[in-house]
Design a protein that fits this description.
single chain; 463 residues; alpha/beta; 5-stranded antiparallel beta sheet; binds (4S)-2,6-dioxohexahydropyrimidine-4-carboxylic acid; binds zinc ion
């Protein structure tokens, strides 16, 4: 196929440093990456001038809550994927805590059909690996991973409805054996439910249901309820051969356990989320309460998590984009256990990481790896996450130096707030392309619902 577009004079990250190139696109794929001007494109090709811009592989976000079906007052597939396009994400995986929760082949089929009609970017959807008799069947539907929540809500019924939680060790063993047989990764939200319950009862007995009490409960014993769950999961992964992916890595001990398990040959990957990197401080728990909970990550853990992201112990950043309405958050000032926890962020995560790069917190090579390269490779999406001939033309053009202020007004999610309101950062997304087509250009979402396709993994390429 002839060249249809040329991204001219963009800087790409090659061996950790910037290199100026022309990127040739033929239809949906990258057909060449050349030194500027090396190839004269046919007159019919559209030229995108990208002087002074970085071209990064489109982000691959393996952990996104799109809320559809069932919770579309918070978000839907169209609004979430608009926010993704504006944030430089070209592929995302949705999560099963929707209504009905995605637990069977037929739930999964209906969910995938919704994305097919509504998504602006490429997608997949992780069903819950709770009904063990469904696990093998769902592998045939082109999924990239399964999900398990070890947490169930106490005091509210969302975002962790009891129907999806799995805490019982025997049930976990069965689920992991069934997932291991598929060869697909299992994403697990590590949590020790009984420890949470014992600790929260003490706060409740004193009548303390504040955001601070909630934050302290979850972080009890310096991360006890995440660490105990992680240790269990690693041991089960070792016994079953299941490919384990730990979501929201939060503590230094989790990082140490994951490193040690890898040395023994356990197949384990992990992610950190935007809120763990940029939000989860005690100062912000005090200032924004329910709006930054998710979890509080004590400073020494946050430092360890950043270090682990730099040195490769943490493989990737995923957003855990988790929109909730103001009403669902505001009740948390009185009773944090009644508030819906989770923090939206897919629209701002990449610019925040670029800003972090400018501050010396992460190298460019690692940035590209954690946003796109690693998630694509580890979940078997061989056409994604790289700027090379033959790969999908999923690209994000970034103005690395533009300073701008994140505001509630800029939010494309259905909710009208962001915990980053008022933050001024350096680095902005200028244009996003999915398979060669513009989905976001200069502040406008231009993609069409239904353009996105299921990103089906290639098992032979997963590494
Ligand atoms: O606090 C959370 N909220 N943790 C999760 O794992 C899910 C998320 C949500 O869906 O809102
Ligand atoms: Zn989540």
């Amino acid at each position: 196929m002839n060249t249809t577009r040329v991204i001219r004079g963009a800087s790409v990250v090659s061996n950790g440093s910037l290199q100026k190139v022309d990127i040739l696109v033929a239809g949906e794929r990258i057909s060449g990456v050349t030194i500027p001007g090396a190839i004269v494109p046919p007159p019919s090709a559209e030229v995108v001038e990208a002087n002074g811009l970085w071209a990064l592989p489109g982000g691959v976000d393996v952990h996104v809550h799109l809320r559809e079906p069932g919770y579309t007052h918070k978000e839907d597939i169209e609004t979430a994927t608009k926010a993704a396009a504006a944030g430089g994400y070209t592929t995302l995986f949705g999560m099963p805590n929707v209504k009905p929760p995605t637990m069977t082949a037929s739930d999964l089929e209906s969910a995938l059909e919704l994305y097919d009609r509504k998504s602006l970017v490429d997608y997949n959807h992780n069903p819950a690996a709770k009904q063990t008799d469904q696990i093998a069947i769902m592998a045939e539907q082109g999924i990239a991973a399964y999900k398990i929540y070890m947490v169930a809500d106490t005091g509210r019924s969302y975002p962790h409805p009891a129907a999806i939680g799995v805490h019982d060790h025997g049930h976990l063993l069965e689920a992991m054996q069934a997932v291991a047989a598929t060869g697909l990764p299992l994403m697990v939200h590590p949590h020790d439910q009984r420890i949470e319950e014992v600790v929260e009862q003490r706060f409740w007995a004193e009548g303390d249901r504040s955001p601070q009490a909630y934050a302290r409960t979850l972080a009890t014993g310096d991360g006890l309820l995440w660490d105990t769950a992680t240790s269990l999961l690693l041991r089960l992964a070792e016994a079953t051969g299941c490919r384990l992916h730990i979501v929201h890595t939060t503590t230094s001990r989790q990082v140490e356990m994951i490193r040690a398990a890898r040395r023994r040959g356990v197949k384990v990957t992990c992610e950190v989320n935007h809120w763990g990197l940029f939000l989860a401080t005690w100062e912000l728990v005090q200032e924004l309460g329910p709006y930054v909970l998710s979890y509080w990550v004590p400073a020494h853990h946050q430092k360890a998590v950043w270090q682990a992201l730099r040195d490769g112990s943490i493989d990737m950043v995923a957003s855990d984009h988790a929109p909730h309405t103001r009403e669902e958050k505001d009740v948390g000032y009185q009773d944090m256990w009644a508030a819906h926890t989770g923090t939206p962020g897919i629209q701002y995560q990449l610019p925040l990481l670029i800003d972090a790069h400018h501050q010396g917190r992460i190298s460019l090579g690692r940035l590209v790896e954690v946003v796109a390269g690693a998630p694509a490779r580890l979940f078997g999406l061989s056409g994604k996450g790289r700027i090379e001939p033959g790969a999908d033309a999923d690209l994000v053009l970034v103005d690395p130096d533009r300073e701008w202020t994140i505001t509630n007004e800029s939010v494309l999610s259905k909710i009208d707030w962001t915990p980053y309101h008022g933050r001024t950062i350096r680095g902005a997304v200028q244009r996003t392309l999915v398979r060669g087509a513009d989905v976001y250009v200069d502040g406008e979402v231009v993609g069409t619902p239904g353009f996105g396709r299921q990103a089906i993994p290639d098992a032979t390429k997963r590494s």
